[in-house]
Amino acid sequence: MSDYVADTHALLWYLTDSPRLGPNASAAFDDAVNGKSTIYISAIVVAELYYLNKKLGGALDFNSEIRALFQAAQFEFVPFAADDVLDFDRDSMVSEMHDRIIVGVARRLSTALLTQDSNVVSSNIVATVW
User: Fold this and answer.
1) Model pTM above 0.90
2) In terms of CATH, what superfamily is 4-129?
3) Within 13 A of 69's CA, how many CA atoms are on the CB side?
4) Cβ contacts of residue 68 below 8 Å, gap of 6+?
């Protein structure tokens, strides 16, 4: 059984059933639905998803979707704590702060990250799946 951390675009494209979601990332979400894995969602991803959804004109009923994710057994939410900032230097190969936080979650949980972000992928800090 493999567990994963989802980045914002992976989660958005999963929730909107977008063909932009990579086939291996899609399979990871399917495995989670079938009870074969857990998808961890950072609090930062939830915040980014909110703003991205607003930017896209509300493609999602955000509150309903997040409540459904809270209820779904295959998803586990990970808070962002002040001491997580102490890992910023360790993950400095990732230039964007929010991505650095998400990478830190995947590294601490020893899971792959569902992302296609080239900066994250090229950093080789964590395994990535797309």
Assistant:
1) yes
2) 5'-nuclease (3.40.50.1010)
3) 26
4) none
